[in-house]
Specification:
mainly alpha
Length: 126
């Protein structure tokens, strides 16, 4: 399989996953969404393995690493600040917004913990 074919298949799989996720949210059928995500991941894994051309090089990996670092450095503090502001205003907000703010705060903490675990793992590995 060529790299161009792989790109086309990725777009098709992503589009199908978007359609299924929209349908599953509208019909509240979340089992179908989980099945679709697992199926999409499995298909992408096998399609990536069957590609004969090189789809990544050192430059691509370096760009991905820099983009990931910048994403974490930007989104986690913004999410944390937003959740703190929403929690501080919880008396004036609906209960659903307060629940979302606590979820956002816990999710920010979880991202930092997972990042710390992976950082320590790769630090020991190198």
């Amino acid at each position: 399989m060529t790299a161009r074919t792989l790109r086309i298949l990725r777009v098709i799989i992503a589009s199908a996953l978007a359609i299924v996720s929209g349908w599953s949210v509208a019909t509240e059928n979340f089992i179908a969404l989980v099945v679709a995500i697992v199926l999409a991941m499995t298909l992408l894994y096998f399609f990536n393995r069957s590609t004969k051309e090189i789809t990544q090089d050192e430059r691509t990996r370096a760009l991905y690493t820099r983009a990931s670092r910048a994403t974490i450095a930007l989104t986690v503090p913004l999410a944390s600040i937003a959740s703190v502001i929403l929690i501080a205003l919880k008396e004036h907000l609906p209960h659903d917004v307060v629940v979302v703010s606590y979820t956002l705060a816990y999710f920010s903490c979880m991202i930092l913990l997972v990042h710390a675990v992976f950082y320590s793992y790769y630090n020991r590995k190198s």
